[in-house]
Design a protein that fits this description.
The protein contains 7 helices and no strands. By secondary structure, it is mostly helical. The chain has one domain.
């Protein structure tokens, strides 16, 4: 997906509605990446619509789903100019003990914390 943001967004738009609740959506980065692409492009309404589709993940019993949702929320908050909220969300995700084992996720969240902190 390196730099192929239009293609990534086109693929996300083609997903059937039932995919929103599939665990594969989280493992494939659909929630966070889809939100982040739109947010970083300045398409804040599209990013808000996208993350809203997965709002139930914020209270999921699965901490990985919570973290994926948090990644998207944090990216959107940062793009909306609310660095304090982006930092709060990212720090909350970093407090999850299982994250120590998931270097890729931790790296993504740490990058958001570093960006929000600067």
């Amino acid at each position: 997906m390196l730099g192929q943001w239009n293609e990534a967004l086109d693929s996300l738009a083609e997903l059937p509605e039932e995919w929103e609740t599939a665990r594969a959506a989280v493992s494939q980065g659909v929630v966070g990446v889809g939100t982040a692409i739109n947010a970083h492009r300045g398409r804040l309404e599209a990013a808000e619509r996208h993350i809203h589709r997965f709002a139930e993940l914020q209270s999921s019993a699965d901490v990985q789903e919570q973290a994926e949702y948090g990644f998207g929320r944090s990216a959107l908050s940062l793009a909306q100019g609310d660095a304090a909220e982006a930092l709060r969300i990212a720090e909350q995700a970093l407090e999850m003990p299982w994250l120590e084992r998931l270097d890729r996720s931790r790296g993504s969240v740490r990058a958001l914390v570093d960006t929000a902190s600067s």
